[in-house]
């Protein structure tokens, strides 16, 4: 009897430690998501603030990446919250959310590929860049990106609706992307499509990198800096693309640890979420926010204006009558 009491106490302590670890990891994810969304919103407002950004293909693709990544993070975090709290929802909104998340998941790497192609045209064909980069070309490019992004999610949706029994759509379940993979052949077909898409994008990235590298070797000294910067941008996009596409392997990686220790499985799942879902979507603001002079300067000025306006509002709101009088008097010519 005493041995059973000791075992019960150890088991209770272990569950408490596991629950505390999960709560800490969950709260850290929420903090990272909030920081990420704040930076993205700042970059989006920077894009909307200057008209010159809205006429440049490079910055339009950058803005699309920001929008797609922000929407993806919000929906992914909602799914994470539902899984964390074991909150069941109706299957129809769950299917819609999972389909949209998959579209956004594919849209980001395709947009990165389009950004690499834009850099290739700008560096390797500078005289034709203005001719190629027109509003009509941009519209067609965005249409192609969203069309290709919808192929795999729509296939998954149609295949799922074809195999589920009648009446299941009216039920509730804890929502997750794996919910739509009812049969093994669906998961295998989805993996093959993602693999083909991955190879297609890697070939384009490699092509643009080689072409820009050749242009960098033959560039004059005054164009050398611009060409080398474009080369580094393509390399960063390749790293970002690799991290984005690695998330497609997350279910297979986590499956290997399903029967392992509980904490090991939780740590693997947590690592995958941070490294392959959050991290690649933090790189776009760094690549085109801090490294690009135009967006950095506009974002810096906009942020300073917001801070100054907040400081002025706090002084006017809580500084008393004397401070208000001093400020009004100083503002007069």
From TrEMBL:
Statement: the UniProt record of this protein carries the keyword Ligase: no
Pfam (any one): 7tm_1
Entry keywords, A to Z: Membrane, Transmembrane, Transmembrane helix
Stretches that traverse the bilayer: 27-48, 60-84, 90-121, 142-163, 191-210, 231-250, 270-290
Domain G-protein coupled receptors family 1 profile: 39-288
One MF annotation (Gene Ontology) recorded for this entry: G protein-coupled receptor activity
InterPro entries: GPCR1_Superfamily_Member (IPR052921), GPCR_Rhodpsn (IPR000276), GPCR_Rhodpsn_7TM (IPR017452)
Annotated GO CC locations: membrane
Domain of life: Eukaryota
Protein's recorded name: G-protein coupled receptors family 1 profile domain-containing protein
Species whose genome carries this gene: Electrophorus electricus (Electric eel)
